[in-house]
Design brief:
Length: 376
């Protein structure tokens, strides 16, 4: 509750103090330099009083990264498994839950035994075709990453390995020719039976064209030159990239430098992220406006709930429900409850999810809004 004796400036200062007390901040040297030149970058990494607003969950994913009693493993889909070898990042994006003091700076990592158990789990189920190696950031510990790749690559039924990273923005100098060659060595084309080929690709998180400095572009060119596909993943962020111009600029820069536009994520309802969250409809409107332009609709627009990704195409009619005075998006998902529960450690669906008469999961996702956030 706001103290009525405080002026607006004093109140904002008090909220900023709360933010700093509750969340950690970290920037790499090159990112700190970039933040001085770009407001869009600064807003993503410099703590703000708005983060102290009471909102959101602290652990949207961490609990899931301990599936089947195997630390660092996660599986929610039939054909995919996620491995998180290293949980730390070299900068904390303000719209992400990693900045919480319970998670930030913990430098947790999978042990050799954890990796062995995860690999055994993946080896034992032929339905798993894709392994996503994510974080924190797997590029922060290339030796550990190599250890995981050495074990995952030989599994016969694993055909796709994808590495999720934002460290190319934080430390472009870390993507050396040697690292690019090491990653490319886990690619194999089977000319007799292409279905047996194995691909490795990078999911690169970039939210604004200002992030594509010459060092960053050079870094991912090293990967592309080695034949590695780079997918561009973007989070829709209010006041940063939530305009047709901004997303179009980014897509054009992706396409002209060899990045394939992949996901446009709606910003998740995590702690301290309320002021970054647009309405879900805003992303649909932007994609509709971009539809006439080449390549710009290549993004898959998604929001994420604990049961997985929800894809929404331009023209999709959102269904709204009111829960405790807040606007939620209700959606019949393509995921069957029985399938989800087969891979879950729990015998129940997460809160705000239910099953319809056909056995599909119905989800409820907290919407954002498009008004400017007011600290009052
Ligand atoms: S790099 Fe990724 S995991 Fe790390 S803080 Fe940013 S969004 Fe979160």
């Amino acid at each position: 509750m706001r103290n009525p004796n405080l002026t607006q400036t004093e109140y904002e200062r008090e909220m900023l103090k709360k933010t700093i007390k509750r969340f950690r901040s970290k920037m790499s040297p090159s990112l700190a330099r970039l933040a001085k030149q770009s407001e869009a970058v600064a807003k993503q990494f410099i703590p703000s009083p708005y983060e102290a607003l009471d909102f959101g969950t602290e652990t949207p994913f961490e609990a899931g990264k301990n599936n089947q009693g195997i630390y660092g493993l996660e599986r929610i889909y039939e054909d995919r498994a996620v491995i998180t070898p290293y949980f730390e990042c070299s900068a904390y994006c303000r719209y992400c839950f990693k900045k919480t003091r319970t998670l930030a700076g913990s430098a947790k990592r999978m042990s050799d035994e954890d990796i062995e158990k995860a690999v055994q789990f993946i080896s034992s189920d032929e339905r798993i075709r894709t392994v996503l190696i994510t974080g924190g950031d797997p590029f922060l510990d290339p030796e550990l990453l190599k250890k995981v790749l050495d074990k995952v690559f030989p599994i016969p039924h694993v055909r796709n390995i994808r590495i999720g990273t934002r460290n190319i923005l934080f430390s472009p100098e870390s993507v050396t020719d040697d690292l690019a060659k090491m990653i490319a060595s886990y690619k194999r084309i089977d000319y007799h039976d292409p279905r047996l080929s194995k691909n490795i690709s990078i999911g690169l998180s970039i939210n604004h064209v200002d992030e594509l400095t010459k060092e960053v572009v050079r870094a991912y060119q090293r990967l592309i030159k080695e034949g590695i596909t780079v997918w561009g993943q973007v989070v829709l962020l209010k006041g940063i990239n939530d305009s047709v111009r901004s997303i179009r600029d980014l897509v054009e820069a992706f396409l002209s430098t060899g990045i394939i536009p992949y996901y446009l994520f709606h910003c998740m309802p995590v702690v301290g992220a309320k002021h970054f969250r647009t309405s879900v409809q805003k992303g649909l409107d932007i994609l509709r406006e971009l539809s006439p332009y080449s390549g710009t609709t290549a993004f898959q627009y998604v929001y994420v709930t604990p049961i997985g990704k929800h894809r929404i195409a331009p023209g999709h009619q959102l269904e709204y429900v009111d829960i405790d005075g807040q606007r939620y998006i209700r959606s019949v998902t393509p995921y069957k409850a029985a399938d989800f529960l087969e891979f879950s450690d729990s015998d129940q669906l997460p809160p705000l999810h239910e099953v319809n008469e056909d056995g599909y999961i119905v989800s409820h996702y907290l919407d954002g809004h498009d008004d400017e956030e007011i600290l009052a």
